[in-house]
């Protein structure tokens, strides 16, 4: 496959916040670095897990303008979607200026039902307003939150109109049949599963990899699967995927942002992970301890005592 974006495992990073609920840039840079050291091929900033839709435009721009320079821009993916078309354009242009050409864009998610014509207009306006052939748009398919599901027809239409700028999709729908169809029917299109549960499946079909929230904790396991697959060791890949799936199933049984921040705080010993924007609330001490024990039992690097 000639993927227009970096293949592999991307972690959809949490966003550390200070006591004033402002993004803690230094902590975010450190966290992104640790994720890549632990096994992530890349890091997606300002996605759903990063509380992007609860941040102001100025806060998102602050991250886009200051974080990539301390990391490897080619290993980053920035979330620039917004209900406001003009905000999405501003964020995407800022991403390009920062050297991050791959952006993850959620469709406008308030007015429902959405039409394919409306989605095509939205993405066309962004791409044409940015006007840079280096731009790579990864469409964020999360119908449970956005109320819109990308069909194969709209993806083909966008690809026909914009070529490799319409670069790929992060599919968080959980619909494996649809992911498989996109991989098989759109050549050289970066299909990322939205969960590591489908990592090995999507790789074997010819997809790019995954972009996963729980990679904040499962990066080492994701790396095991990806390396075994690339080495052609099918038995090892199957075993690694089975372990990884067990971890994912435990992690997804708790509120994503609250739960992942709780476990990341336990793992790092940093109080910065206790802070989160409404509507999220921290786990109770009892639930945090239970979650930590459950996670540790799957082999995750989390203190089991809670």
Concise account of the structure shown:
This protein is an alpha/beta fold and 306 residues long. Helix content is 47%, strand content 12%.
What does this protein structure show overall?
With 306 residues, the protein is an alpha/beta fold. Helix content is 47%, strand content 12%. It contains twelve helices and eight strands. The chain has helices at residues 25-38, 57-66, 85-97, 116-130, 143-146, 152-162, 176-185, 199-205, 215-231, 234-251, 256-268, 285-297, and strands spanning 8-12, 42-45, 76-79, 102-105, 136-141, 166-171, 190-193, 209-212. An eight-stranded parallel β-barrel has the order 1-2-3-4-5-6-7-8, surrounded by six helices. Helix 7 (176-185) links the parallel strand 6 (166-171) and strand 7. Helix 8 packs parallel to helix 9. The mean pLDDT is 96.
Segments where pLDDT lies below 50 for 5+ residues? Answer: none
Shape, per Cα inertia axes: globular
CA radius of gyration: 18 Å
Q: What is the terminal-to-terminal distance? A: 44 Å
Q: Quaternary state, please?
A: single chain
As a percent range, the share of strand residues is 5-15%
Fraction of helical residues: 40-55%
Structure keywords:
globular, alpha/beta, eight-stranded parallel β-barrel, 12 helices, 306 residues
Which helices and strands, and how do they pair?
Layout: E1 8-12, H1 25-38, E2 42-45, H2 57-66, E3 76-79, H3 85-97, E4 102-105, H4 116-130, E5 136-141, H5 143-146, H6 152-162, E6 166-171, H7 176-185, E7 190-193, H8 199-205, E8 209-212, H9 215-231, H10 234-251, H11 256-268, H12 285-297
Parallel strand pairs: 1-2, 1-8, 2-3, 3-4, 4-5, 5-6, 6-7, 7-8
Helix pairs in contact: 2-3, 3-4, 4-6, 8-9, 9-10
């Amino acid at each position: 496959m000639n993927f227009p974006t970096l293949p592999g495992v991307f972690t959809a990073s949490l966003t550390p916040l200070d006591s004033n609920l402002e993004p803690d840039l230094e902590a975010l840079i450190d966290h992104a670095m640790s994720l890549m050291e632990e096994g992530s091929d890349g890091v997606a900033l300002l996605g759903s897990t990063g509380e992007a839709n609860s941040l102001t435009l100025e806060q998102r721009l602050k991250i886009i303008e200051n974080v990539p320079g301390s990391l490897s821009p080619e290993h980053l993916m920035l979330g620039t979607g917004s209900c406001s078309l003009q905000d999405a354009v501003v964020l995407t242009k800022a991403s390009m200026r920062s050297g991050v050409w791959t952006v993850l864009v959620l469709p406008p998610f308030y007015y429902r039902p959405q039409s394919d014509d409306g989605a095509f207009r939205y993405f066309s306006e962004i791409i044409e307003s940015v006007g840079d052939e280096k731009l790579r748009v990864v469409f964020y398919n999360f119908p449970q939150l956005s109320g819109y599901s990308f069909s194969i027809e709209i993806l083909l239409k966008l690809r026909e109109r914009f070529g490799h700028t319409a670069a790929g999709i992060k599919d968080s729908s959980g619909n494996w049949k649809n992911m498989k169809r996109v991989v098989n029917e759109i050549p050289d299109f970066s299909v990322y599963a939205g969960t590591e549960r489908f990592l090995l499946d999507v790789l074997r079909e010819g997809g790019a990899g995954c972009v996963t929230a729980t990679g904040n904790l499962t990066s080492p396991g994701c790396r095991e699967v990806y390396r075994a697959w690339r080495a052609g060791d099918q038995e090892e890949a199957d075993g690694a995927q089975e372990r990884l799936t067990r971890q994912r199933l435990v992690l997804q049984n708790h509120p994503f942002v609250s739960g992942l921040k709780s476990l990341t705080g336990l793992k790092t010993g940093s109080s910065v992970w206790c802070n989160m924007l409404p509507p999220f609330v921290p786990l109770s001490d009892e639930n945090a301890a239970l979650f930590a024990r459950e996670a540790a039992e799957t082999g995750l690097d989390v203190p089991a005592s809670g």
